[in-house]
Amino acid sequence: MANGVCQHFKGANCSGGSTPANGSIKGVVYKNGDTSDHIAPATVRLNTGATTTYNGSAVWSFDVPPGSSYSITASASGYQTGTRTCPAVTSGQIAWCSIELQPATTKGFIKGVVYKNGDTTDHVSPASVSLNTGASTTYDGSAVWSFEVSPGTYSVTASASGYQTATRS
What we know:
mainly beta, Immunoglobulin-like, 2 domains, 4-stranded antiparallel β-sheet, 0% helix
């Protein structure tokens, strides 16, 4: 303090003590358990509301006051949003807080028709169509039957009165 006026300098305060320097939280957004397999672009949000866009090169970074706990949330197209609690930040130090994202769970469809005599235009109806998951529907001969499914392998079984039951995988 000079002439009753507080002089602010980096790392000092007017009460005679020092103001702790900020620390940093840094990291990458990655996939497949490999921190060198980056996901970009990705949005990284700190629980304080600060946000940055990660471009896949170098690291994302937030300067934060020491002594608090922080968490980050990362999101990218085609991936599930992830959240992680970061290590404690200390004055002037870096807390590494890279985050792994998992692929989004995408759904697909299994569709078809029930037909006879090898002719896909000669439909059988009504027919019962079921998946090995237990899902079932009744096919009425118009359009197609359809099931929304997660990625995987399925067996489809069709049956109709007067016809042999058929299963395809």
